[in-house]
Amino acid sequence: MLNLKTIRWCGDATGSLILIDQTLLPLEFREVECANGDVEKVWEAIRSLRVRGAPAIGIAAAYGVCLGVQNVLEADEETFFAKFYEVAEYLASSRPTAVNLFWALDRMKKTAEDFRLVMKLTHSFHPREAANRLLMEAQRIHDEDRAICRAIGDFGAELIPDGAGVLTHCNAGGLATADYGTALGVIFSAVAEGKKIHVYADETRPLLQGARLTSWELMQREIPVTLICDSMAALVMREGKVQACVVGADRIASNGDVANKIGTYMVAALAHLHGIPFYVAAPESTFDLSLESGDSIPIEERGAEEIICGFGKQTAPTGVRVYNPAFDVTPAKFVSAIITEKGIISPVTKENIRQILEK
Ligand code: MRU
Predict the structure, then answer these.
(1) How many angstroms is it from 48 CA to the middle of ligand 1?
(2) What secondary structure does DSSP assign to 156-213, as a single string?
(3) Which atom of ligand 1 is nearest to the CA of 209?
């Protein structure tokens, strides 16, 4: 059984952050180490998708904050907190769409502010103690994710019929979280219950998270998987090979509109057309209830080279104009259910979202 450790922290508050370099998978399994206060390396790892997937980005950023304060462990209160806020703001600029990044940084800020208040009352300040508290909070975020993904998996498994073909897009597995995954967590739990599942993994142009990561994870766990080009999803559905679609999410608005990897909207529309249920699996931390609808979700645009020259081979004329949004928004009306750690939201309405999340 695959024992993934997508993200690890080694040592105490002066320790280091170790990430699987996902850009090298599946050909090479190598980890990158970020140490000695090198928060730029964490920023770069998030920006260039060495670590990716909404929950994993949040966990990495929380540890990134711990790394970022390592150079002020002997400083006074003013200097320590100035550095803390600078680092948090810097990490928040790494990627715009997955709200888990900002959610995790907000938790780190709350921890820092609570600690500062307590220190004020006792008229003392110990930067190492502050750094320890921050590390504890990052570890809590990390540990919680393990439990949350298993709860999502267990709730979601009941929606997947025995013998089903399940189509997924991008990678919402262990590599996108602490170790288990959201959408793939649903599949892992269904398989653990004894159901026979066959997964159709969209390759997910342009960065091929489905081809490189999802098919790798499923093969590691010996779950049957067939890789298809994104453009084959309609045919595979029409051929009756797919009984359910399950994907993850990067941000969910209060009305249930879902931002996820580019191409997800197309899968949802096709599922709707073919009468196939389309499920989104995501933790509470992926909801952004401050947004009325998906229209205001910021969508990351990435460089043209990812499309013109993906993985080292030029496949389009030099200088061609390119549009490369990394995410799209699926309207709530196409989402049959959202599977959270608190239960299943269906039908997807503002009221049902509030009701389940308030549990
Ligand atoms: O650009 P990426 O690889 O970070 O995009 C990831 C996705 O879109 C995932 O589906 C999403 O973050 C959910 S991960 C549990």
Answers:
(1) 13
(2) HHTTS-TT-EEEE-S--BGGGSSSSBSHHHHHHHHHHTT---EEEEE--TTTTHIIII
(3) 3
Provide the annotated active-site residues: 250
Q: Nearest Cα to 226, choosing from 236, 238, 240?
A: 236
Q: pLDDT (tens digit, 9 = 90+) per residue, 121-165? A: 988 899 999 999 999 999 999 999 999 999 999 999 999 999 999
Q: What is the largest CA-CA distance in the chain?
A: 70
The conformational region for residue 106 under phi > 0 = left, psi -120 to 50 = alpha, else beta, is: alpha
pTM over 0.70? The answer is yes
Find where tokens 């960065």 sit: 207
- Residues paired with 202 in a beta bridge: 228
The conformation of residue 301, written as its DSSP 8-state character, comes to B
Whether the Cβ atoms of residue 345 and residue 155 lie closer than 8 Å to each other: no
From the CA of 170, give the closest atom in ligand 1.
10
Is residue 99 within 8 A of residue 55, CB to CB? The reply is: no
**Given the DSSP bridges, would you call strands 337-340 and 327-330 parallel, antiparallel or unpaired?**
unpaired
Residues 6+ apart with CB under 8 A from 250: 54, 97, 98, 99, 100, 259, 260, 261, 286, 327
